[in-house]
Amino acid sequence: MTDREPRVALVVGATGISGQALCSQLVGDGWTTYGLSRHDTLPVDGVTPIAADLLDPDQLADALRDVAPEVVFLVAWMKQDTEKENIEVNSRLLRNVFTALEPAGSVRHVALMTGLKHYLGPFEDYGTAVTAETPFHESEPRLDNDNFYYAQEDEVFAAAERMGFTWSVHRAHTIVGFAVGNAMNMALTLSVYATLCREHDRPFVFPGSETQWNGLTDVTDVGLLAEQMIWAATHAEGENEPFNIADGDVFRWRWLWPQIAEHFGVEPVGFDGEPKPLDDRMGDAPDEWRAIAEKYDLVEPDVTRLASWWHTDSDLGRDIECLTDMTKSRQAGFLGFRSTPQSFADAIARYREARIIP
């Protein structure tokens, strides 16, 4: 940490998987940490909760009136039906946050989390207009289509010019880690899927595409993402730059899938002819999981609060190679890394310890 390190932070989206990891690291490092969400309580101890609707500017201004953060971490988004709606809603929530914080004049740095749809395009036009070679580099130009990530970046840039803060953008790949009450997490989705397979003596069938099964890819440990965002907020080398963030290793799912299966004692089955999406096969999961939760005295019987079939299907179903270059981040001085198999193993162990999976 540098001598310029601030000690007051606001995490916008504190209940999400990334927000929880940021809150944990900030509190552990001694920061005064505020967590903004819709909730009056937060899953991380030591964080001061701020409950407000990000789309209600008056409510947000009231909630943040006495908060003067030096660093703002933006890890919140609201999924809409179309990309035009994504742009409108997710731009507005950032504008509302900046408007509420501007009177205090305290903000020195804003760190925004986006993702690889920066290079791949939005959900509704996913992978059809990719121009970048893999691994993806931060210097690639924007795609010529609607993308709420671009709109959010532009909101940050405009506010930075007006309010005088520095910024950083963090482009994560598929996020792996531990979070309570957040379902957009491949590690937990695959853990629930593997548990269902084990309990009903089914094979652990890879749901995705042949390209993902055989091609190289990477993922992002959520703790590493938090480390990079905090590093950028506390080091001059991280100012006014976009950074990819992935574990630093690469793998093929045909290599990792059997290792995940081993944690659950299930038979791994690879790609065979065509994708087999989870969303199409998990119709009985709500009732099956309820029975498993009762059998093992688990804390969450509602499988929809644990697994996000569509989200994992979108990552594993891509018919395009997807991995990132980390050179820019390393040259700037951020040298963090993770072992991807260990990231999955650690997340699985924590979910078991918390009695979320048996």
UniProtKB/TrEMBL annotation:
The record ties this protein, via CDD domains, to: 5beta-POR_like_SDR_a
Q: Which residues form the signal peptide?
A: none
Q: Show the Gene3D superfamilies listed in the entry.
A: NAD(P)-binding Rossmann-like Domain
UniProt-listed InterPro entries:
NAD(P)-bd_dom_sf, PRISE-like_Rossmann-fold
Residue ranges of domain PRISE-like Rossmann-fold in the record: 69-358
> Source organism's superkingdom?
Bacteria
Protein name as catalogued:
Nucleoside-diphosphate-sugar epimerase
